[in-house]
Design goal:
Mean pLDDT: 97
Number of domains: 2
Number of helices: 6
Order of helices and strands: EEEEEEEEEEEEHHHEEHEEEEHH
Distance between the termini: 21 Å
Largest sheet: 7 strands, antiparallel
CATH superfamily of the largest domain: Naphthalene 1,2-dioxygenase Alpha Subunit, Chain A, domain 1
Shape: globular
Strand order of the largest sheet: 12-18-17-16-15-14-13
Length: about 350
């Protein structure tokens, strides 16, 4: 499945963001992940859990059922499953068949996010979850907030490609956060296991409108823009903007931000997109909460329009790559390698 080998879609033995931590509560939350229905909720002791969302009897959606203590009672025939996935009651008979169970997925709450492992539970290594320190989370002086949880009508790798090639900022986001220098400035890149680190150091660049609004400045800027990709679907970005060298007040920080994009396959053609932000003041966080919705909507628009091309084309010509595709191509290769390794494991 484009852009991977025929039949390949997404790695299963990996951590994905199932949702923001605040989304899980007493109510049952339905979510499709890697083509499987999942239900998220918190037990009475506050622990978040994730179980399969399909009753094995008649496939009724368990997310449309009801809580009974820490268990889920199917809304169709009352068959009940505990948070460990085991069936505890079949109202129409005295015994519970041994085969009656639903999946119980490893779920880890860390920072703003709930991380789920959809593959072999015995291989669910929590050290593969990005550490807070590595992604710039919980740093002193920063305020962090979950902004948007979106359902995107396109395959997840289109969003990964978007985030691995930030040269689009000066064009798709020219009216808000980008300038031509996002494309013309050389990129540095480093690959470290399942992580790809990308940086651009912009010098004497035009100040994008939203950055100027945040910093009260519209002159030339120096800017450090970067993204760390943790395969297969988490991007931690940084954006530090200063008054350009040679200008009055050179080096003064205008805007310092952390941005987080969690890209989780829902189905083969739909994606969950969780966007979070970290800023140096609550006022800055609220400014960007209001302003970045339109920016993220532009990325969603691009993704969904490309998905329409992929879906409706009888035949696609080969992609014609350019130099700025290098990081996105490395991201694709990394994810493909993960899927290849699963096949031979």
């Amino acid at each position: 499945m484009y852009p991977f080998k025929d039949g390949d879609f997404a790695p299963k033995n990996a951590w994905y963001v199932a949702g923001f931590a605040h989304e899980a509560g007493e109510a049952l939350l339905s979510r499709w992940i890697l083509g499987q229905p999942v239900v998220l909720y918190r037990k009475e002791d506050g622990t978040a859990v994730a179980v399969g969302g399909r009753c094995p009897h008649r496939y009724f959606p368990l997310g449309e059922s009801r809580r009974v203590g820490d268990a889920i009672q199917c809304g169709y025939h009352g068959i009940t499953f505990g948070p460990d996935g085991l069936c505890t009651r079949v109202p129409s008979q005295a015994t519970v068949p041994g085969v009656y169970r639903i999946p119980a997925y490893p779920l880890v709450e860390r920072g703003l996010w709930l991380w789920i492992w959809m593959g072999d539970a015995e291989k669910a290594d929590t050290s593969l979850i990005p550490a807070n320190a590595d992604i710039g989370f919980d740093q002193p002086g920063y305020h962090y907030s979950a902004f948007y949880a979106l359902d995107v009508g396109g395959r997840y790798q289109l969003l990964n490609d978007n985030l691995l090639d930030l040269t689009h900022l000066g064009f798709l986001h020219a009216s808000s956060i980008g300038s031509d220098e996002n494309a013309s400035t050389p990129e540095t890149r480093r690959i470290d296991g399942r992580r790809i680190v990308s940086r651009r150091f912009l010098k004497n660049a035009a100040c994008p409108p939203l950055i100027g609004q945040a910093g009260g400045y519209d002159g030339p800027i120096d800017r450090v823009a970067g993204m760390d990709f943790y395969a297969p679907g988490f991007h931690a970005g940084l954006d530090d903007t200063m008054i350009a060298e040679g200008q009055p007040g050179a080096g003064t920080m205008l805007n310092s931000a952390k941005v987080y994009h969690a890209v989780t396959p829902a189905t083969r053609q739909r994606t969950h997109y969780f966007f979070a932000f970290g800023g140096t003041s609550k006022a800055q966080v609220e400014l960007f909460r209001d302003a970045l919705g339109a920016v993220v909507a532009e990325d969603v628009f691009a993704t969904e329009e490309i998905e329409k091309i992929l879906r409706d084309s009888e035949e696609l010509p080969p992609e014609l790559m350019i130099r700025s595709d290098a990081t996105a191509v490395e991201g694709r290769r990394l994810i493909q390698r993960m899927m290849d390794e699963e096949r031979v494991a």
